[in-house]
Specification:
This protein has about 550 residues and is of the alpha+beta class. Helix content is about 40%, strand content about 15%. The chain has helices at about 40-60, 65-70, 95-115, 130-150, 155-170, 215-225, 245-255, 330-360, 390-395, 405-425, 425-430, 440-450, 450-480, 515-530, 540-550, 555-560, and strands at about 1-5, 10-15, 120-125, 170-180, 185-190, 195, 210-215, 265-275, 285-290, 295-300, 315-320, 320-325, 330, 360-365, 370, 385, 395-400, 505. The strands form seven sheets. Strands 6-7-8-9-10 form a five-stranded antiparallel beta sheet. It has a three-stranded antiparallel beta sheet with strand order 5-4-11, covered by helices on one side. The protein starts with a strand and ends with a helix.
Length: about 550
Protein backbone atom coordinates (compact mmCIF):
# COMPACT_ATOMS: atom_id res chain seq x y z
CA UNK A 1 0.00 0.00 0.00
CA UNK A 2 1.04 3.64 -0.43
CA UNK A 3 0.01 6.62 1.67
CA UNK A 4 -0.03 10.36 0.96
CA UNK A 5 -0.63 12.74 3.86
CA UNK A 6 -3.00 15.66 3.13
CA UNK A 7 -2.78 19.19 4.59
CA UNK A 8 -5.84 18.73 6.84
CA UNK A 9 -4.29 15.69 8.56
CA UNK A 10 -6.22 13.08 6.59
CA UNK A 11 -4.48 10.50 4.40
CA UNK A 12 -5.08 9.05 0.94
CA UNK A 13 -4.41 5.30 1.02
CA UNK A 14 -4.09 3.16 -2.12
CA UNK A 15 -4.42 -0.51 -1.12
CA UNK A 16 -3.47 -1.69 -4.64
CA UNK A 17 0.09 -0.49 -4.23
CA UNK A 18 -0.09 2.22 -6.92
CA UNK A 19 1.40 5.65 -6.13
CA UNK A 20 -1.15 7.67 -4.18
CA UNK A 21 -2.58 10.88 -5.72
CA UNK A 22 -0.64 13.61 -4.02
CA UNK A 23 -1.60 17.23 -3.45
CA UNK A 24 0.40 19.86 -5.39
CA UNK A 25 2.79 20.44 -2.49
CA UNK A 26 3.60 16.74 -2.37
CA UNK A 27 4.68 16.46 -5.99
CA UNK A 28 8.11 14.88 -6.58
CA UNK A 29 11.20 17.07 -6.41
CA UNK A 30 12.18 20.02 -4.26
CA UNK A 31 10.01 23.11 -3.90
CA UNK A 32 11.92 25.14 -6.50
CA UNK A 33 12.78 22.23 -8.82
CA UNK A 34 11.76 22.16 -12.47
CA UNK A 35 8.43 20.28 -12.54
CA UNK A 36 8.54 19.41 -16.27
CA UNK A 37 9.84 15.83 -15.66
CA UNK A 38 6.96 15.15 -13.23
CA UNK A 39 4.16 16.06 -15.70
CA UNK A 40 2.86 13.95 -18.58
CA UNK A 41 3.34 14.96 -22.23
CA UNK A 42 -0.31 15.81 -22.85
CA UNK A 43 -0.45 18.19 -19.87
CA UNK A 44 2.80 19.87 -20.97
CA UNK A 45 1.50 20.38 -24.53
CA UNK A 46 -1.66 21.97 -23.14
CA UNK A 47 0.33 24.32 -20.86
CA UNK A 48 2.72 25.29 -23.69
CA UNK A 49 -0.12 26.06 -26.12
CA UNK A 50 -1.98 28.05 -23.43
CA UNK A 51 1.11 30.17 -22.58
CA UNK A 52 1.72 30.95 -26.27
CA UNK A 53 -1.95 31.75 -26.97
CA UNK A 54 -2.22 34.14 -24.01
CA UNK A 55 1.06 35.83 -24.94
CA UNK A 56 -0.22 36.45 -28.49
CA UNK A 57 -3.52 37.75 -27.10
CA UNK A 58 -1.73 40.23 -24.79
CA UNK A 59 0.51 41.31 -27.67
CA UNK A 60 -2.42 42.04 -30.00
CA UNK A 61 -4.39 43.90 -27.31
CA UNK A 62 -1.85 46.77 -27.25
CA UNK A 63 -0.85 46.88 -30.92
CA UNK A 64 -2.29 50.35 -31.51
CA UNK A 65 -0.64 51.61 -28.32
CA UNK A 66 2.76 50.53 -29.71
CA UNK A 67 2.07 52.26 -33.04
CA UNK A 68 1.86 55.60 -31.15
CA UNK A 69 5.54 55.25 -30.24
CA UNK A 70 6.61 54.29 -33.74
CA UNK A 71 5.24 57.65 -34.93
CA UNK A 72 6.55 59.43 -31.85
CA UNK A 73 10.13 58.15 -32.25
CA UNK A 74 10.44 60.26 -35.44
CA UNK A 75 9.92 63.34 -33.24
CA UNK A 76 13.15 62.61 -31.35
CA UNK A 77 15.10 63.92 -34.36
CA UNK A 78 17.89 61.36 -33.95
CA UNK A 79 18.08 60.49 -37.64
CA UNK A 80 19.88 62.78 -40.09
CA UNK A 81 18.13 62.69 -43.45
CA UNK A 82 17.72 64.59 -46.70
CA UNK A 83 14.53 64.94 -48.70
CA UNK A 84 13.29 65.99 -52.13
CA UNK A 85 9.81 66.71 -50.76
CA UNK A 86 8.31 69.28 -51.19
CA UNK A 87 11.52 70.36 -52.97
CA UNK A 88 15.16 69.29 -53.15
CA UNK A 89 17.10 70.44 -50.09
CA UNK A 90 14.04 71.25 -47.95
CA UNK A 91 14.67 71.50 -44.20
CA UNK A 92 14.31 68.15 -42.39
CA UNK A 93 15.36 69.30 -38.89
CA UNK A 94 13.18 68.26 -35.94
CA UNK A 95 12.69 70.63 -33.02
CA UNK A 96 14.66 69.23 -30.04
CA UNK A 97 11.85 69.84 -27.51
CA UNK A 98 11.11 66.15 -26.91
CA UNK A 99 14.66 64.77 -26.83
CA UNK A 100 15.91 67.73 -24.76
CA UNK A 101 13.23 67.14 -22.12
CA UNK A 102 14.00 63.40 -22.03
CA UNK A 103 17.78 63.79 -21.70
CA UNK A 104 17.43 66.50 -19.01
CA UNK A 105 15.09 64.26 -17.05
CA UNK A 106 17.48 61.30 -17.38
CA UNK A 107 20.41 63.41 -16.16
CA UNK A 108 18.56 64.86 -13.18
CA UNK A 109 16.94 61.56 -12.13
CA UNK A 110 20.23 59.65 -12.45
CA UNK A 111 22.01 62.16 -10.23
CA UNK A 112 19.28 62.01 -7.58
CA UNK A 113 18.60 58.25 -7.58
CA UNK A 114 22.15 56.94 -7.95
CA UNK A 115 24.64 59.05 -5.96
CA UNK A 116 28.33 58.20 -6.03
CA UNK A 117 28.30 56.37 -2.69
CA UNK A 118 25.47 54.05 -3.75
CA UNK A 119 21.69 54.34 -3.83
CA UNK A 120 20.67 52.28 -0.75
CA UNK A 121 19.81 53.43 2.76
CA UNK A 122 18.73 51.08 5.55
CA UNK A 123 15.80 51.65 7.89
CA UNK A 124 15.10 49.72 11.10
CA UNK A 125 11.64 48.16 11.42
CA UNK A 126 10.25 48.18 14.98
CA UNK A 127 12.25 48.89 18.12
CA UNK A 128 15.76 50.21 17.62
CA UNK A 129 18.49 48.22 19.35
CA UNK A 130 22.26 48.42 19.02
CA UNK A 131 22.22 45.00 17.31
CA UNK A 132 19.68 46.22 14.73
CA UNK A 133 21.67 49.42 14.17
CA UNK A 134 24.78 47.37 13.39
CA UNK A 135 22.71 45.11 11.12
CA UNK A 136 21.26 48.15 9.29
CA UNK A 137 24.76 49.52 8.79
CA UNK A 138 25.95 46.20 7.35
CA UNK A 139 22.92 45.89 5.04
CA UNK A 140 23.40 49.43 3.72
CA UNK A 141 27.14 48.96 3.24
CA UNK A 142 26.79 45.57 1.54
CA UNK A 143 23.92 46.50 -0.81
CA UNK A 144 25.74 49.64 -1.95
CA UNK A 145 28.86 47.54 -2.54
CA UNK A 146 26.67 45.02 -4.38
CA UNK A 147 25.05 47.59 -6.69
CA UNK A 148 28.25 49.50 -7.47
CA UNK A 149 30.81 46.63 -7.65
CA UNK A 150 29.27 43.14 -7.64
CA UNK A 151 26.55 44.09 -10.16
CA UNK A 152 28.37 46.47 -12.53
CA UNK A 153 25.49 46.30 -15.03
CA UNK A 154 23.00 47.85 -12.57
CA UNK A 155 23.94 51.48 -13.22
CA UNK A 156 23.99 51.12 -17.02
CA UNK A 157 20.66 49.26 -17.08
CA UNK A 158 19.19 51.85 -14.70
CA UNK A 159 20.27 54.72 -16.97
CA UNK A 160 18.81 52.94 -20.03
CA UNK A 161 15.54 52.66 -18.13
CA UNK A 162 15.66 56.39 -17.27
CA UNK A 163 15.95 57.25 -20.99
CA UNK A 164 13.01 55.08 -22.08
CA UNK A 165 10.82 56.06 -19.13
CA UNK A 166 10.12 59.76 -19.93
CA UNK A 167 9.63 59.05 -23.65
CA UNK A 168 7.30 56.04 -23.39
CA UNK A 169 5.80 56.53 -19.91
CA UNK A 170 6.44 52.99 -18.62
CA UNK A 171 9.66 51.03 -18.11
CA UNK A 172 10.46 47.67 -16.48
CA UNK A 173 13.44 46.41 -14.51
CA UNK A 174 14.09 42.75 -13.68
CA UNK A 175 16.25 41.49 -10.82
CA UNK A 176 16.94 37.76 -10.64
CA UNK A 177 19.58 35.29 -9.47
CA UNK A 178 21.83 34.10 -12.29
CA UNK A 179 23.17 30.65 -11.47
CA UNK A 180 25.85 30.82 -14.19
CA UNK A 181 27.30 34.04 -12.68
CA UNK A 182 26.46 32.94 -9.12
CA UNK A 183 25.10 36.37 -8.20
CA UNK A 184 21.98 38.54 -8.59
CA UNK A 185 21.63 40.32 -11.95
CA UNK A 186 19.79 43.48 -12.96
CA UNK A 187 18.26 43.91 -16.39
CA UNK A 188 16.29 46.63 -18.15
CA UNK A 189 13.42 45.03 -20.09
CA UNK A 190 12.37 47.00 -23.21
CA UNK A 191 8.65 47.57 -23.56
CA UNK A 192 8.43 45.39 -26.69
CA UNK A 193 9.82 42.42 -24.72
CA UNK A 194 7.31 42.61 -21.86
CA UNK A 195 3.57 41.92 -22.22
CA UNK A 196 0.96 42.20 -19.47
CA UNK A 197 -2.61 40.87 -19.43
CA UNK A 198 -5.18 43.47 -20.52
CA UNK A 199 -7.13 43.67 -17.23
CA UNK A 200 -4.07 44.14 -14.98
CA UNK A 201 -4.09 47.19 -12.69
CA UNK A 202 -0.56 46.52 -11.39
CA UNK A 203 2.04 43.77 -11.63
CA UNK A 204 1.14 42.21 -8.28
CA UNK A 205 -2.51 41.75 -9.27
CA UNK A 206 -1.87 40.81 -12.91
CA UNK A 207 -3.11 37.38 -14.03
CA UNK A 208 0.06 36.99 -16.04
CA UNK A 209 2.94 38.84 -17.63
CA UNK A 210 5.38 37.52 -20.22
CA UNK A 211 9.05 38.36 -20.62
CA UNK A 212 10.33 37.62 -24.14
CA UNK A 213 13.92 36.37 -23.79
CA UNK A 214 16.35 35.98 -26.70
CA UNK A 215 18.99 33.27 -26.23
CA UNK A 216 21.67 32.13 -28.65
CA UNK A 217 22.06 28.32 -28.89
CA UNK A 218 25.31 28.27 -26.91
CA UNK A 219 23.87 30.23 -23.95
CA UNK A 220 20.74 28.07 -23.95
CA UNK A 221 22.90 24.92 -23.97
CA UNK A 222 24.84 26.27 -20.94
CA UNK A 223 21.60 26.99 -19.07
CA UNK A 224 20.24 23.52 -19.90
CA UNK A 225 23.52 22.02 -18.65
CA UNK A 226 23.23 24.07 -15.43
CA UNK A 227 19.72 22.63 -14.88
CA UNK A 228 17.85 25.89 -15.49
CA UNK A 229 15.82 24.30 -18.31
CA UNK A 230 14.86 20.73 -19.22
CA UNK A 231 16.98 19.10 -21.94
CA UNK A 232 14.45 18.72 -24.77
CA UNK A 233 14.79 18.15 -28.50
CA UNK A 234 14.27 21.65 -29.92
CA UNK A 235 14.13 22.77 -33.55
CA UNK A 236 17.13 24.69 -34.89
CA UNK A 237 17.36 28.33 -33.83
CA UNK A 238 16.16 30.82 -36.43
CA UNK A 239 16.98 34.47 -37.28
CA UNK A 240 14.70 36.54 -35.05
CA UNK A 241 11.59 38.23 -36.34
CA UNK A 242 11.85 41.84 -35.14
CA UNK A 243 8.95 43.68 -33.54
CA UNK A 244 7.76 46.81 -35.33
CA UNK A 245 9.14 48.94 -32.46
CA UNK A 246 12.65 47.48 -32.64
CA UNK A 247 12.59 47.88 -36.45
CA UNK A 248 11.72 51.56 -35.95
CA UNK A 249 14.59 52.00 -33.47
CA UNK A 250 16.97 50.34 -35.95
CA UNK A 251 15.75 52.70 -38.69
CA UNK A 252 16.34 55.76 -36.49
CA UNK A 253 19.78 54.61 -35.31
CA UNK A 254 20.86 53.44 -38.78
CA UNK A 255 21.42 49.83 -37.74
CA UNK A 256 19.97 46.62 -39.13
CA UNK A 257 20.10 42.89 -38.42
CA UNK A 258 22.60 41.41 -40.89
CA UNK A 259 21.27 38.77 -43.27
CA UNK A 260 23.63 36.15 -41.84
CA UNK A 261 22.92 37.11 -38.22
CA UNK A 262 23.34 34.57 -35.45
CA UNK A 263 20.11 32.59 -35.03
CA UNK A 264 18.37 32.93 -31.68
CA UNK A 265 15.88 30.99 -29.62
CA UNK A 266 12.88 33.02 -28.43
CA UNK A 267 11.82 31.99 -24.92
CA UNK A 268 8.52 33.10 -23.42
CA UNK A 269 8.93 33.36 -19.64
CA UNK A 270 5.39 33.74 -18.34
CA UNK A 271 4.64 34.46 -14.69
CA UNK A 272 1.13 33.06 -14.32
CA UNK A 273 -1.24 30.90 -12.28
CA UNK A 274 -1.62 27.13 -12.92
CA UNK A 275 -3.91 24.55 -11.36
CA UNK A 276 -1.65 21.48 -11.55
CA UNK A 277 -3.40 19.48 -8.82
CA UNK A 278 -6.98 20.04 -10.12
CA UNK A 279 -7.99 21.72 -6.87
CA UNK A 280 -9.80 24.52 -8.71
CA UNK A 281 -7.36 27.14 -7.40
CA UNK A 282 -4.43 28.34 -9.52
CA UNK A 283 -1.09 28.88 -7.77
CA UNK A 284 1.78 31.14 -8.95
CA UNK A 285 4.27 29.52 -11.34
CA UNK A 286 6.95 30.64 -13.77
CA UNK A 287 6.59 28.78 -17.07
CA UNK A 288 9.21 29.06 -19.83
CA UNK A 289 8.19 28.01 -23.35
CA UNK A 290 10.28 27.89 -26.56
CA UNK A 291 8.19 29.95 -28.99
CA UNK A 292 8.56 28.10 -32.31
CA UNK A 293 7.97 24.57 -30.93
CA UNK A 294 5.75 25.63 -27.98
CA UNK A 295 7.67 23.12 -25.85
CA UNK A 296 7.76 23.77 -22.10
CA UNK A 297 11.37 24.09 -20.90
CA UNK A 298 10.63 24.73 -17.23
CA UNK A 299 7.79 25.08 -14.72
CA UNK A 300 8.77 26.35 -11.29
CA UNK A 301 6.77 27.36 -8.24
CA UNK A 302 6.78 31.11 -7.71
CA UNK A 303 5.96 31.33 -4.01
CA UNK A 304 7.85 30.65 -0.81
CA UNK A 305 7.74 27.13 0.57
CA UNK A 306 6.71 28.31 4.04
CA UNK A 307 4.12 30.86 2.80
CA UNK A 308 0.59 29.70 3.78
CA UNK A 309 -1.01 32.36 1.53
CA UNK A 310 1.16 31.36 -1.47
CA UNK A 311 1.69 34.94 -2.64
CA UNK A 312 3.56 35.18 -5.93
CA UNK A 313 7.13 36.46 -5.77
CA UNK A 314 8.04 39.54 -7.78
CA UNK A 315 11.09 39.85 -10.01
CA UNK A 316 9.93 42.83 -12.09
CA UNK A 317 9.50 46.48 -11.10
CA UNK A 318 7.24 48.82 -13.05
CA UNK A 319 8.52 52.41 -13.23
CA UNK A 320 5.88 54.95 -14.30
CA UNK A 321 6.44 58.50 -15.54
CA UNK A 322 2.86 59.70 -15.06
CA UNK A 323 0.04 57.25 -14.22
CA UNK A 324 -2.44 57.15 -17.09
CA UNK A 325 -5.89 55.71 -17.72
CA UNK A 326 -4.82 52.07 -17.58
CA UNK A 327 -1.88 49.87 -16.61
CA UNK A 328 0.75 51.78 -18.62
CA UNK A 329 1.99 55.28 -17.79
CA UNK A 330 1.97 58.37 -19.99
CA UNK A 331 5.21 59.81 -21.37
CA UNK A 332 6.52 62.86 -23.16
CA UNK A 333 5.42 61.46 -26.54
CA UNK A 334 1.85 61.77 -25.24
CA UNK A 335 2.36 65.15 -23.55
CA UNK A 336 4.70 66.93 -25.96
CA UNK A 337 4.14 65.02 -29.22
CA UNK A 338 1.72 67.51 -30.76
CA UNK A 339 3.72 70.52 -29.52
CA UNK A 340 6.91 69.03 -31.02
CA UNK A 341 5.14 68.49 -34.36
CA UNK A 342 3.92 72.12 -34.32
CA UNK A 343 7.35 73.49 -33.36
CA UNK A 344 9.01 71.33 -36.05
CA UNK A 345 6.58 72.57 -38.75
CA UNK A 346 7.13 76.23 -37.73
CA UNK A 347 10.92 75.80 -37.61
CA UNK A 348 11.06 74.12 -41.05
CA UNK A 349 8.80 76.84 -42.50
CA UNK A 350 11.13 79.56 -41.20
CA UNK A 351 14.27 77.84 -42.51
CA UNK A 352 12.74 77.15 -45.93
CA UNK A 353 11.45 80.71 -46.32
CA UNK A 354 14.92 81.97 -45.35
CA UNK A 355 16.46 79.77 -48.06
CA UNK A 356 14.11 81.15 -50.72
CA UNK A 357 14.71 84.73 -49.58
CA UNK A 358 18.49 84.17 -49.80
CA UNK A 359 18.45 82.30 -53.13
CA UNK A 360 15.31 83.52 -54.93
CA UNK A 361 13.89 81.72 -57.96
CA UNK A 362 11.68 83.14 -60.71
CA UNK A 363 10.84 83.28 -64.43
CA UNK A 364 12.90 84.58 -67.37
CA UNK A 365 11.81 85.37 -70.94
CA UNK A 366 12.54 82.59 -73.45
CA UNK A 367 14.87 84.75 -75.50
CA UNK A 368 17.21 85.48 -72.57
CA UNK A 369 20.10 83.04 -72.14
CA UNK A 370 22.49 82.85 -69.19
CA UNK A 371 26.03 82.10 -70.33
CA UNK A 372 27.28 78.90 -68.67
CA UNK A 373 25.06 76.85 -66.40
CA UNK A 374 22.14 77.86 -64.20
CA UNK A 375 23.96 77.47 -60.86
CA UNK A 376 23.00 80.07 -58.20
CA UNK A 377 25.22 83.18 -58.23
CA UNK A 378 28.01 83.38 -55.68
CA UNK A 379 28.51 86.61 -53.66
CA UNK A 380 30.34 89.22 -55.80
CA UNK A 381 29.81 87.28 -59.04
CA UNK A 382 28.55 88.92 -62.25
CA UNK A 383 27.48 86.48 -64.94
CA UNK A 384 27.02 87.22 -68.64
CA UNK A 385 23.53 87.17 -70.11
CA UNK A 386 22.59 87.06 -73.81
CA UNK A 387 19.59 89.31 -74.37
CA UNK A 388 18.04 90.08 -77.75
CA UNK A 389 17.11 93.73 -77.36
CA UNK A 390 14.80 93.03 -74.43
CA UNK A 391 14.94 95.10 -71.25
CA UNK A 392 16.60 92.66 -68.79
CA UNK A 393 14.58 94.00 -65.85
CA UNK A 394 11.39 93.08 -67.72
CA UNK A 395 12.78 89.77 -69.04
CA UNK A 396 13.59 88.32 -65.57
CA UNK A 397 10.78 88.19 -62.99
CA UNK A 398 11.73 86.93 -59.50
CA UNK A 399 8.95 85.27 -57.48
CA UNK A 400 7.75 87.41 -54.55
CA UNK A 401 9.40 85.39 -51.74
CA UNK A 402 9.08 87.01 -48.34
CA UNK A 403 11.58 87.10 -45.52
CA UNK A 404 10.89 84.58 -42.70
CA UNK A 405 7.72 85.67 -40.88
CA UNK A 406 8.23 87.41 -37.54
CA UNK A 407 4.79 86.20 -36.40
CA UNK A 408 5.77 82.60 -37.16
CA UNK A 409 9.05 83.09 -35.29
CA UNK A 410 7.15 84.37 -32.22
CA UNK A 411 4.77 81.41 -32.42
CA UNK A 412 7.75 79.02 -32.53
CA UNK A 413 9.12 80.65 -29.37
CA UNK A 414 5.73 80.38 -27.66
CA UNK A 415 5.27 76.67 -28.58
CA UNK A 416 8.81 75.71 -27.54
CA UNK A 417 8.51 77.73 -24.31
CA UNK A 418 5.18 76.07 -23.46
CA UNK A 419 6.69 72.62 -23.92
CA UNK A 420 9.83 73.39 -21.91
CA UNK A 421 7.77 74.98 -19.15
CA UNK A 422 5.62 71.86 -18.96
CA UNK A 423 8.61 69.52 -18.82
CA UNK A 424 10.74 71.46 -16.31
CA UNK A 425 11.04 75.17 -15.55
CA UNK A 426 13.38 74.84 -12.54
CA UNK A 427 16.42 75.94 -14.53
CA UNK A 428 14.82 79.28 -15.39
CA UNK A 429 14.15 79.93 -11.70
CA UNK A 430 17.81 79.21 -10.86
CA UNK A 431 19.02 81.47 -13.70
CA UNK A 432 16.84 84.34 -12.46
CA UNK A 433 17.40 83.68 -8.74
CA UNK A 434 19.48 86.85 -8.24
CA UNK A 435 16.39 88.93 -9.01
CA UNK A 436 14.14 87.36 -6.37
CA UNK A 437 15.59 88.66 -3.13
CA UNK A 438 14.94 86.64 0.06
CA UNK A 439 15.76 82.94 0.29
CA UNK A 440 12.16 82.10 1.21
CA UNK A 441 10.89 83.63 -2.04
CA UNK A 442 13.38 81.61 -4.10
CA UNK A 443 12.45 78.46 -2.17
CA UNK A 444 8.75 78.99 -2.93
CA UNK A 445 9.50 79.55 -6.64
CA UNK A 446 11.74 76.48 -6.76
CA UNK A 447 9.07 74.34 -5.15
CA UNK A 448 6.37 75.60 -7.51
CA UNK A 449 8.56 75.11 -10.61
CA UNK A 450 9.60 71.57 -9.69
CA UNK A 451 6.15 70.17 -8.81
CA UNK A 452 6.05 68.03 -11.96
CA UNK A 453 9.49 66.48 -11.41
CA UNK A 454 8.82 66.12 -7.65
CA UNK A 455 5.76 63.96 -8.30
CA UNK A 456 7.65 61.79 -10.80
CA UNK A 457 10.56 61.59 -8.36
CA UNK A 458 8.23 60.23 -5.65
CA UNK A 459 7.02 57.54 -8.05
CA UNK A 460 10.64 56.67 -8.97
CA UNK A 461 11.56 56.59 -5.28
CA UNK A 462 8.71 54.15 -4.55
CA UNK A 463 9.56 51.88 -7.52
CA UNK A 464 13.26 51.88 -6.64
CA UNK A 465 12.35 50.88 -3.08
CA UNK A 466 10.35 47.93 -4.47
CA UNK A 467 13.37 46.97 -6.61
CA UNK A 468 15.69 47.04 -3.58
CA UNK A 469 13.22 44.85 -1.65
CA UNK A 470 13.33 42.27 -4.46
CA UNK A 471 17.15 42.33 -4.32
CA UNK A 472 17.13 42.00 -0.51
CA UNK A 473 14.79 38.98 -0.78
CA UNK A 474 17.03 37.35 -3.41
CA UNK A 475 20.03 38.02 -1.13
CA UNK A 476 18.28 36.22 1.73
CA UNK A 477 17.38 33.26 -0.50
CA UNK A 478 20.62 32.84 -2.43
CA UNK A 479 23.64 34.45 -0.78
CA UNK A 480 26.22 32.44 1.19
CA UNK A 481 26.62 32.94 4.92
CA UNK A 482 29.76 35.08 4.81
CA UNK A 483 30.64 38.54 3.58
CA UNK A 484 33.09 38.88 0.67
CA UNK A 485 35.07 41.50 2.61
CA UNK A 486 36.19 42.36 6.15
CA UNK A 487 33.29 43.62 8.29
CA UNK A 488 34.42 46.24 10.85
CA UNK A 489 33.59 45.24 14.43
CA UNK A 490 31.51 42.17 13.48
CA UNK A 491 31.79 38.56 12.38
CA UNK A 492 31.95 38.19 8.59
CA UNK A 493 29.79 35.03 8.75
CA UNK A 494 26.35 36.63 9.20
CA UNK A 495 25.59 37.81 5.66
CA UNK A 496 22.46 35.82 4.89
CA UNK A 497 20.70 36.47 8.22
CA UNK A 498 21.22 40.23 7.86
CA UNK A 499 18.45 40.13 5.25
CA UNK A 500 15.88 38.51 7.57
CA UNK A 501 13.30 41.31 7.15
CA UNK A 502 14.11 43.26 10.32
CA UNK A 503 15.81 45.93 8.22
CA UNK A 504 13.96 47.74 5.44
CA UNK A 505 15.93 49.00 2.44
CA UNK A 506 14.97 52.36 0.94
CA UNK A 507 16.56 54.62 -1.68
CA UNK A 508 18.94 57.36 -0.56
CA UNK A 509 17.07 59.92 -2.68
CA UNK A 510 14.65 62.23 -0.86
CA UNK A 511 11.39 62.57 -2.84
CA UNK A 512 10.45 65.72 -0.92
CA UNK A 513 13.65 67.58 -1.92
CA UNK A 514 14.13 66.61 -5.57
CA UNK A 515 17.19 68.64 -6.56
CA UNK A 516 20.59 69.75 -5.29
CA UNK A 517 19.55 73.39 -5.90
CA UNK A 518 16.62 72.82 -3.55
CA UNK A 519 18.92 71.33 -0.89
CA UNK A 520 21.39 74.20 -1.13
CA UNK A 521 18.59 76.77 -0.80
CA UNK A 522 17.33 74.88 2.26
CA UNK A 523 20.87 74.88 3.71
CA UNK A 524 21.14 78.63 3.14
CA UNK A 525 17.83 79.15 4.97
CA UNK A 526 19.01 77.00 7.91
CA UNK A 527 22.32 78.91 8.21
CA UNK A 528 20.49 82.24 8.03
CA UNK A 529 18.13 81.24 10.86
CA UNK A 530 21.00 79.85 12.94
CA UNK A 531 22.97 83.08 12.62
CA UNK A 532 19.96 85.12 13.85
CA UNK A 533 19.05 82.82 16.77
CA UNK A 534 20.53 83.21 20.28
CA UNK A 535 23.79 81.24 20.79
CA UNK A 536 23.15 77.65 21.88
CA UNK A 537 19.75 77.37 20.17
CA UNK A 538 21.21 75.41 17.23
CA UNK A 539 23.74 72.58 17.27
CA UNK A 540 26.02 74.30 14.73
CA UNK A 541 28.28 71.28 14.14
CA UNK A 542 25.30 68.99 13.45
CA UNK A 543 23.83 71.64 11.13
CA UNK A 544 27.08 71.95 9.17
CA UNK A 545 27.37 68.15 8.94
CA UNK A 546 23.81 67.89 7.54
CA UNK A 547 24.46 70.67 5.00
CA UNK A 548 27.72 69.08 3.79
CA UNK A 549 26.01 65.67 3.55
CA UNK A 550 23.23 67.24 1.47
CA UNK A 551 25.88 68.75 -0.81
CA UNK A 552 27.51 65.27 -1.17
CA UNK A 553 30.76 66.59 0.26
CA UNK A 554 33.51 63.93 -0.03
CA UNK A 555 35.78 63.08 2.92
CA UNK A 556 33.23 64.46 5.40
CA UNK A 557 34.65 62.60 8.43
CA UNK A 558 38.06 64.31 7.94
CA UNK A 559 36.49 67.76 7.46
CA UNK A 560 34.14 67.48 10.46
CA UNK A 561 35.42 64.79 12.85
CA UNK A 562 32.72 63.56 15.26
Amino acid sequence: ESVAMMEDGSAVVDLMGNPAIMPEEGMPGGHYDNLVPTLDEEQLQEIGADVYEKYQSDKESRQEWEETFQRGFDLLGLKLKETSEPFEGACTAVHPLLIESAVKFQSKASQELFPAGGPVMAQIIGTETEQKQQQASRVKQFMNYQLTDMMPEYFHEFERMLFHLPIIGSAFKKIYYDSSLDRPCSEFVPIDQFYVSYHASDLMKADRYTHVILRNPNDLAKEIDAGVYEDLELPEAQPIEQTSMSMKVDEIMGTAIPADSDPQYVLLEQHCYLDLDDSGIGLPYIVTVEESSKKVLSIRRNYNEDDPTKQKKMFFTHYKFVPGFGFYGLGLIHFLGNLTMTATAAMRNLVDSGQFATLPAGFKAKGVKVVGDNEPLSPGEFRDVEATGVDLARAIVPLPYKEPSNTLFQMLGFVAGAGQKFADSTEQVINDSTNYGPVGTTMALLEASSKFFSAIHKRLHYSQKEEFKILARINFESLPDSYPYEVPGASPTILKMDFDGKIDVIPVSDPNIPSSAHRLMLSQLALQLASQAPPGTYNIQALHRTILQAANMPNLEAILPP
